Structure formats: structure tokens, C-alpha cells
């Protein structure tokens, strides 16, 4: 009798759940874990200590991350569907209205409408509207997920405005869930680090702030800026976009996270389920991660990292998925290639447990193509 049918157990004809990494040595007892992962060779299980059976930190990024899609289906004729196909998320209405506004400024090249005065270009999903981003530009569909993705951009952030090439200042939509609309637009200066700064609640409010910043600089042509601001006010009012909107409605974040944009996951306050704090302060965690480098990963600091991984698996067993996501964000923000396997494993698992699978795919694709300069197709 085949092993997978021992003890009367029958393997289902098709099971799309990811396999449990522990295999026949799985120590986990929770029904939620058994529901989310398949165990092809359970056999006779033994009771084992958590620290003994916790999976070690992987040493290499897989050549092809799980879930990476190499197929290139035809681009949908509808631009909204095309953006969703390529980036796995939908754009809010202000995105499309902002494109129309830039078309009114510079019909022949809307993507460059703001460059002369503000040194900002419309990029990312805007390239679909500009007709620049077709399936001929990519060798596999996951390439699109990294188009104009900067080094410190987490899966939650989608760049739409690119600024100075030297500082790598850029602005993008930030959303907590890939199936929901963004909660705000944020900026990052990739040359300086992982810090994400909330800017405004829609692109028109973002542009209003950028114009205000430029007006304070004496070397800017203020007459042209004021004319641009007048056109902005008129167009935004016509379309119903507030220039004072700071953010969409958002639950209070459970954690600030290393990048500062905050972490929001489903949380049952009565049961205390969904998130728990890491067993290490932010200060101590930063000190620990500072000991890693791209070419050196052995030592006591790696053992300490493995201990934290064990705690995260325990938290996952008890449905506190936010802990693993917070930790993976911290590792991602550290920026060391030696930590990428751990980011991929822990972050990917957290997104899947939170039912945010598109973010898992974006993360995996980004880690394969992560560079100091933004990844740009074309």
C-alpha cells in the first residue's frame, strides 16, 4: 500500500494548498495549520520540541520563487483590466482622473507634463495608459510586478511618480490589502533608506503639496507654477478630489513597522487574535540586523534570527499572522541580500495566511530582481 494511503488516509485528486515545510515531522497541532497546508506524508507523528523542529533559515534564494508565472497572456483591451493583469491590483479613480489632467497639460506626452516644473514623471501603471507597457516588453509576467519598483518598496507600495534619479525620490500608492483600494500616497528616497512618508490621500493633493514645495524655492519659475496650481484647483474641483485629503479611512495600525507606513492586519480585540508583538524591541532588532551583511551571515546573530523564526511559527500556529509579516518587513528594510531567503519565506507565508497572495507574488518577484536602481521594463 502506498505511504500516502496508510491508515485509511486518501490523497485528494487535487490539492492547491501549499505543502507543509515540516513534512512527516510536522509538530503543529492547530486545525488552522492543517487547513492551510497539505501534509503528503504524515505517517506516524512524534511529539517534538518546537525549537528542535523549527525550519532553518534558508541559505539561498530559489532560482525560481514559488508562484512565479512565466506565461504571458494577451493584454486585455480595457486599460483597467490590463493594469490589474500586470500589477495584480486596481487603481483608484483619482489615478485615471490625474492622467486626464496631465493630458490636458501636455497632450503629446502626458507622462512628462510635470517634469519641466517639478521634475516628476508619471511611471509604473501610468505606462499602460501611455501605451508604453505591452507584453512584448517582458519575458515573463512577473517582470511587470517590478516595473518601477524601487529597492525599499514593499509589496504594499506601487510607484506612480518618479523624481530625482540621484536621490531616487518617488511617490506611490500604499494599500494594506491587494483587494482593497490604497489608503494614501507615500514617498520614499531610496538613496537614503527605507523610510516611507505619507504624503496625501489622492494624486491631486500630492501635486498640490509638490507645487507648494517648489514655490518655496527661489530658482523655480513661480508664474508657471501658479498657473499650474490654478489648473490643478479647477480640475480637481470639477472631478471632486479634495486637495486637503491626507488619507482614506484606515484602521489604526498594530505596529509602526521599520519603514514607518504601519502594519494593518485583521485583529480580534476580544480574543486577542491576529497580531502579537515581536519578543524583541525595535532597537534590539535593528542592532541584530545591523550585524548581517550581503557576504557574511554566519555567527551568533544568525542563531538569534533562527530563534525569532521559531517564535513566528508558534505565532502562526495561533493565528497571529501579523507577527511574521512585521518581522519580514524588518528584514526587508535591512536590505541585505543574505536575508532575502528569510524575507521570501516568512513574508510570503504571512501574506498567504492573511489571504494577500498577490503581495506574496510581488515580494518573490522583487527579491529576484532587487537592485539599488529601480527595475524598469523597456
TrEMBL record:
Domain PBZ-type: 17-41
Domain of life: Eukaryota
Single GO MF annotation: poly-ADP-D-ribose binding
Biased composition (Basic and acidic residues): 1-19, 29-41, 57-67
Pfam families: HPF1, zf-CCHH
Biological processes annotated in GO: DNA damage response
Cellular-component GO terms for this entry: chromosome; nucleus
Residue segments, region Disordered: 1-79
Keyword Oxidoreductase: no
Record localization: Chromosome; Nucleus
InterPro entries: APLF_PBZ (IPR019406), HPF1 (IPR019361)
Keywords: Chromosome, Nucleus
Residues annotated as signal peptide: none
Family: Belongs to the HPF1 family.
Protein name in the entry: Protein ovary overexpressed
Organism: Rhipicephalus microplus
Amino acid at each position: 500500500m502506498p505511504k500516502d494511503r496508510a491508515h485509511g488516509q486518501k490523497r485528494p485528486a487535487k490539492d492547491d494548498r501549499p505543502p507543509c515545510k515540516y513534512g512527516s515531522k510536522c509538530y503543529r497541532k492547530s486545525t488552522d495549520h492543517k487547513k492551510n497546508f497539505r501534509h503528503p506524508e504524515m505517517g506516524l507523528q512524534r511529539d517534538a520540541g518546537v525549537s528542535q523542529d523549527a525550519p532553518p533559515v534558508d541559505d539561498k534564494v530559489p532560482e525560481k520563487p514559488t508562484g512565479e508565472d512565466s506565461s504571458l497572456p494577451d493584454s486585455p483591451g480595457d486599460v483597467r483590466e490590463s493594469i490589474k493583469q500586470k500589477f495584480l491590483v486596481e487603481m483608484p479613480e483619482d489615478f485615471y482622473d490625474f492622467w486626464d489632467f496631465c493630458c490636458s497639460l501636455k497632450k503629446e506626452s502626458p507622462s512628462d507634463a510635470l517634469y519641466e516644473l517639478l521634475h516628476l514623471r508619471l511611471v509604473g501603471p501610468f505606462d499602460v495608459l501611455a501605451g508604453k507597457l505591452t507584453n512584448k516588453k517582458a519575458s515573463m509576467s512577473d517582470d511587470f510586478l517590478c516595473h518601477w519598483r524601487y529597492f525599499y518598496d514593499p509589496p504594499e507600495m506601487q510607484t506612480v511618480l518618479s523624481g530625482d534619479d540621484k536621490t531616487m525620490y518617488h511617490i506611490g500608492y500604499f494599500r494594506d490589502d491587494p483587494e482593497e483600494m490604497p489608503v494614501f500616497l507615500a514617498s520614499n528616497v531610496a538613496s537614503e533608506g527605507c523610510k516611507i512618508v505619507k504624503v496625501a490621500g489622492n494624486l491631486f493633493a500630492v501635486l498640490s503639496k509638490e507645487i507648494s514645495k517648489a514655490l518655496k524655492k527661489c530658482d523655480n519659475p513661480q508664474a508657471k507654477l501658479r498657473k499650474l496650481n490654478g489648473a490643478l484647483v479647477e480640475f480637481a474641483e470639477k472631478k471632486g478630489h479634495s486637495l486637503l485629503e491626507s488619507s482614506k479611512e484606515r484602521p489604526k495600525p498594530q505596529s509602526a513597522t521599520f519603514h514607518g507606513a504601519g502594519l494593518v492586519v485583521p485583529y480580534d480585540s476580544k480574543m486577542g487574535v491576529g497580531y502579537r508583538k515581536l519578543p524583541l524591541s525595535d532597537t534590539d532588532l535593528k542592532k541584530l540586523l545591523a550585524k548581517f551583511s550581503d557576504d557574511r551571515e554566519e555567527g551568533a546573530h544568525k542563531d538569534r534570527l533562527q530563534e525569532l523564526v521559531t517564535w513566528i511559527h508558534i505565532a502562526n500556529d495561533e493565528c497571529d499572522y501579523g507577527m511574521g509579516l512585521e518581522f519580514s518587513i524588518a528584514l526587508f528594510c535591512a536590505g541585505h541580500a543574505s536575508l532575502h531567503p528569510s524575507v521570501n519565506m516568512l513574508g510570503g507565508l504571512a501574506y498567504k495566511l492573511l489571504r494577500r497572495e498577490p503581495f506574496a507574488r510581488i515580494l518573490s518577484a522583487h527579491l529576484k530582481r532587487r537592485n539599488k536602481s529601480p527595475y524598469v521594463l523597456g
